Amino acid sequence: MSTKKIKKRIGLFTLNVFFIIICFVGLVPILYAFTLSVSGDGGALTSKMSILPTSFTLKNYAAVFREKPFLLWFKNSMVLSIGTMIIAMGFAIIAAYAFSRFQFRGKRKVLLLLLLLNAFPQILSMFAIFRLFKTLNLINSQMGLILIYAGSMCIFSIWNMKGYFDTIPIEIEEASKIDGASNGQLLTKIILPLALPAIIVTSVMVLIFVWNEYLFATTFLLNDKSYSLAGGLYQLQADDYTRSWPMFTAAAIMVSTPILVIFFAIQKYMVSGLTAGGVKG
Amino acid sequence: MKKRRSFALCLVLILIVGSLAGCGKKNSNKDTSSNSKDNAVEATTDDTSTDQTKEADEQTTEETKPVSITVWHDGNEAIMQTIQDYINNKLVEDKITVTFEKKTGLTDQLKLYGNDSNNGPDMYFYAHDSLGMFAEMGILSPVTDVVDTSAMSDLLPMTVDACTYKDTQYMIPVYFETLLFMYNKDLWEGDMPTTTDALYDYMVAHTDTKAGTYAVVNQHSTAYNVAPYINGFGGYIIDKDAKAGLNEQATKDAITYNKKFADLEADGDYNTVTTLFNESKAAAIIGGPWLVSGINDAGINLGIKSLASFTLPNGNALAPYSGVQGIGVLKHAVDSKKEALAKVLTAITDMDLGIALAKTANCAPSNTTSYDDAEVAANEMVVAMKETAATAVPMPNIPEMSAMWGPTESLLAAVNKSGEDVNKAADTYQENAITAIKDMQ
Amino acid sequence: MKSKKKITPWIYFTPALILISVIIVFPILYTGYISLTNMNVFHWFDYKIIGFDNYQRALLKIDSGFIKAVFTTFIWTALNMVIQVVVAYLIAVGLNTPGLKLSRLYKTLLMFPWAMPAYVSILLWRVGIYNTEFGLLNKIFVSLGLGKMNFLSENVPAFIACMVLNLWMALPFMIMMIDGALQSVDRCYYESATLDGAGFLVKNIYITIPSIKQIIAPAVIMTTFTTFKQFDIIYLLTLQKGSLTGSTLQTIITYAHQNAFVSNNYGLSSAVSIIIFLIIIVCSLGTNRGVKEEV
Hints:
Structural class of chain C: mainly alpha
Oligomer: heterotrimer
Number of domains of chain B: 2
Transmembrane segments (chain A): 12-34, 78-99, 111-133, 139-159, 190-211, 245-266
Number of helices of chain B: 17
Radius of gyration of chain B: 26 Å
Number of strands of chain C: 0
Keywords (chain A): Cell membrane, Membrane, Sugar transport, Transmembrane, Transmembrane helix, Transport
CATH class of chain C: Mainly Alpha
GO molecular function, one term (chain A): ABC-type maltose transporter activity
Family (chain A): Belongs to the binding-protein-dependent transport system permease family. MalFG subfamily.
Number of domains of chain C: 1
Membrane topology (chain A): Multi-pass membrane protein
Order of helices and strands of chain C: HHHHHHHHHHHHH
CATH architecture of chain C: Orthogonal Bundle
Strand content of chain B: 15-25%
């Protein structure tokens, strides 16, 4: 009994060491950015630099807040991400549900068609969307950008969630149907809780996509007060000649941190209703 | 029964969609209002901006009403701020407000917004080499339609030429840049060589690649930084008839000659070479005024020479490209804001603005009278650029130039970094360049 | 009754389909339209339909360089996908080991590369890791007494460098997908398997993989497409204007970019886009089989 326990302990210890190494190696480029951001105002890179900072100052972070409308960008990023999440997920959940639950002619073809459409490089669509939005007066509007993002992520979300919905045994629904639940009730009361991990995972993907997108953001939004975080960062620091490394890296770290906070917070909801409910498929 | 259910679901859906759309709209409207509160000058979002353009129409008749002019740029924000402050200060009586907005990837942005009177800018501030492309696209108005340029006789002729495409002037030059030989006075030993061969000998003697110390560093695989050699050898990247010259013998000789230097100039990436110089690991760098603020921060004892002071083996001086930074007017803005634009164009050529730019950012002003100022005349860097201007070759501004950068740099990288044979690579990339130019049509 | 049943799913699809038509389908059709015109710098506003001339010219671009790019793209996609799925699977399984208390922290830290905008990550790698003078790898090389190495100047090292970066950027996504999928595997199976004396390998091959295959298949298929059309990494790492590194590594997309898009000829580049799109469709008919199984 005790040897088994020791064996397990050793296993866990090895695993912990393994993950600490993996995390460290994975974080090296980030640590590099962090070191640059807290190392004063050297202005550029340095050959002396080690991975861990030798001096520590937060003035580059302060400078980002002082010189750039960082909080405004943050708000814009929030509006864009949440707006996109609501629309893309709302549309995709019902569509994915239908793809998973209804049998109809041409279903496979439609799914395949969606996949192929998604293969068209998005950057090529920019010009066409620009023309369309100009006519619809959606240039420089957050709603316009939200529609672009939602459209871009919709196919992905449908595909991704359909896979999960397929794993939810149809017997559960049939049982509820006998109890007199409508399709709408089925979706909200039964399917959504069961598919919660899938929904969270997909939402996070949508969120990160919007959070990090910069090309559409800088093209379709016109002044620096309406940029998103990634857009503002790109706009101000994209080319070698005008980049201030310490400020750039400080801003980059600050752009990424909210995502991690959100990610850390939602993880406890990622436990499936399926396993919790103990239903066997 | 079932029918009604799905109908209800459908209705709910429509409601959801409707409310979402409503939400979004409200959101963006709210944003607009907060924006305009923040900065009353910036008119950007749909309805407000059309109102403002209408207003602007009326303004031309009554001069007391304020006019706002938006300028897009993709340059140094400190320089743009200097220009913006100067013009706004000067035109405060005329109630003209100029706003400089940074747009990364300005060329691509102007392709989309160049003729968009609702969302696009009124003017743009950029280097002159993309002028031909914008002019051919038909988004630019000749500046001579807006302002009488004959009054601007103080401008350096070279800079005016650079701003002229097919005999029409599309830009007002403000300042210009050339590459310079910048060195660390504490590291450089002995006298500065006057020939490139002597410079090479110095480099051989003072470079230790293994230890990471260099005599001279240069972005040796970019077209702009190799142009001094190519032009000096009598070669060309593209001539004025849009003929690519990558496999001309003179160009190839220049590239071969440059390769010798490149082997002693580190990797040639911008970040690498500037850091080497700023950390005193390189005694000299070939670069422009944009490097100065970083160099000063690093506390380097900076000395400056004109590239024209080095003679090539054939007796010619090194002849860098000159890049003229100027301001152009977009066609759509002329109808509604002509008078205000004329005032801005006039103000931007002021001697005082030139002096201010020279003092704050080491820009070499286009206005020759600015050099009469004692402090400007004493600015080593500005003077070196003015000196170089005599031999510098303005970057070609024909649209075909935009297709040349890629093949030229590929050629340089192939020769300098991958060790390919010059003759073979030159033929390949000449072919590429010809195809690229043909593809434009 | 029967006809209504046919319509029902389409009511569910309507909102998504409208959105997709506007944002995805319309641009493709519009690109198709532009490809039939002579829109370029010299005919920016006064362009007109010129028929299939652009296609004729675009097809001429299918030369040896293009074939090489196609070849590179396939190796790129295949290698990346295999490594990505295998590594992500192992890490995800490790993260789900019962008793691993810090797994939430590890998961969050592992997500960091994904939380950075792509251009920032690529820049950091180019300057911080691969740089010849200051890059971390070269610092390690030098301290080991080896010479400096330029990772991006030759095609093979550049390919590996791009691939490592792509894995770094894409793994968090895959880990999260597989981790999410693992949540739906019923723990009871493992318990009974353990009682039967099954080892780690057996449990994974007979329980875990079959259970999550269906869930992660869409994500894997989607990622395959993303990898296939990956542009940023190769372009920003090796081909960026002003900092070419000397490697001539090209995928289909970067090849098209260099050979059509820099020309500012929208008609021609649209034709090239449509042809590439058709190539992707043809290629995915291969994946079609895999898709058939899943649907």
